[in-house]
Automatic annotation (TrEMBL):
NCBIfam families: lipoyltrans (TIGR00545). This is lipoate--protein ligase. Pathway: Protein modification; protein lipoylation via exogenous pathway; protein N(6)-(lipoyl)lysine from lipoate: step 1/2; Protein modification; protein lipoylation via exogenous pathway; protein N(6)-(lipoyl)lysine from lipoate: step 2/2. Its EC number is 6.3.1.20. It catalyses: L-lysyl-[lipoyl-carrier protein] + (R)-lipoate + ATP = N(6)-[(R)-lipoyl]-L-lysyl-[lipoyl-carrier protein] + AMP + diphosphate + H(+). InterPro entries: aa-tRNA-synth_II/BPL/LPL, BPL_LPL_catalytic, Lipoate_protein_ligase_C, LipoylTrfase_LipoateP_Ligase. GO terms for molecular function: lipoate-protein ligase activity. It comes from Aequitasia blattaphilus.
Length: 328
């Protein structure tokens, strides 16, 4: 098996690296990867990004949001978390399950004196608390299995970043299963730091011989090309969300209460209406014309509404406050 450790903490690069290893590295080899991301929410392929993140919290903390190739729920990454990936052949995909890849984690932790167990369809827990979520991407007879290992993550940020705000969102996408979480480090009897833990993972996660591979300049250029074309794009990270309906309600000083209803498909507003006790004409045909077909994203809305007389629709409502209502 070939071992690859990413030296980057950029989530878009690392997800592109997974895709590169899966699609472009020699298929007669199997791969094991370790990698870390700076503060990031990684959403599943079939999820509605808007539903999975606390947008105001994410913006305030500068947390990146990236969509992965595999299904499953949204997870939070920081530098206290380690991600592992297996890219292997599978002769019988139908009989291959997530547990087969979770078992090495359980066995590795046993060597550190930690009693862990597989739980549900894709979690690994300690004392009933989740520290690892796992998912898979399958194409042809090849499988990419990846998982998180929260070793020493900031659990307060985990909760805040993935906490959905009070807006009522009805989505056709899959909702994440939220559960209590824990870090691995407090459960290890000896004082083991993150670098030592990574070393243990390298030693015990794979049975048999491993050969380390260092990415070439050409490899990195190809990975960055994938990153630019997919993982850096709004269209992939937000626009690939399923159709959903969203209702937002805000009371804004000087303006009044605004209740907004929107339909959104592929991240683009397809219908819009509003009610409330505000002064003004509300959802005029002119406002709808500006909004429908526009991406539900701050920059796109700023551009679409530039120079528009919003005061005729909602008296005493600034453009910045209005866009915040729509996006947050």
């Amino acid at each position: 098996m070939i071992f690859i450790e990413s030296t980057s903490t950029n989530p878009a690069f690392n997800l592109a690296l997974e895709e590169y290893v899966f699609d472009y590295m020699p298929k007669d080899q199997e791969y094991f990867m370790l990698w870390q991301n700076e503060n990031t929410i990684v959403v599943g392929k079939h999820q509605n990004t808007v539903e999975e993140i606390n947008a105001a919290y994410v913006k305030e903390r500068g947390i990146q949001v990236v969509r992965r190739l595999s299904g499953g729920g949204a997870v939070y990454h920081d530098l206290g978390n380690i991600n592992f990936t297996f890219v292997v052949d599978a002769d019988n995909i139908e009989q291959l399950n997530l547990q087969a890849f979770c078992q090495p984690v359980v066995k590795t932790l046993e060597r550190l004196g930690v009693e862990a167990e597989q739980s549900g369809r894709n979690d690994i827990t300690i004392d009933g608390k989740k520290f690892s979520g796992n998912s898979q991407y399958i194409k042809g007879k090849r499988i990419m299995h990846h998982g998180t290992l929260m070793f020493d993550s900031d659990l307060s940020v985990v909760a805040g970043a993935l906490k959905v705000t009070g807006d009522k969102i009805q989505s056709k996408g899959f909702k994440s299963i939220r559960s209590r979480v824990t870090n691995i480090r407090p459960h290890i009897p000896a004082d083991v730091d993150l670098e030592r833990f990574k070393q243990v993972l390298r030693e015990y996660m794979v049975q048999g011989e491993m050969t380390q591979y260092t990415l070439t300049k050409e490899d990195i250029e190809e990975v960055k090309k994938i990153q630019r074309e997919r993982y850096d794009t709004w269209e992939w990270n937000y626009g690939a969300s399923p159709e959903f309906q969203i209702q937002k309600s805000r009371r804004i000083e000087g303006c009044g209460k605004i209740d907004i209803s929107m339909n959104v498909e592929n991240g683009v507003i397809t219908d819009y209406d509003s009610r409330g006790d505000y002064f003004g004409e509300g959802a005029t045909p002119e406002l709808k014309e500006k909004l429908i077909g526009c991406r539900l994203e701050e920059g796109a809305l700023q551009e679409a509404l530039k120079g528009f007389g919003l005061g005729a629709c909602y008296s005493n409502l600034s453009l910045d406050d209005y866009i915040e209502v729509l996006c947050m």
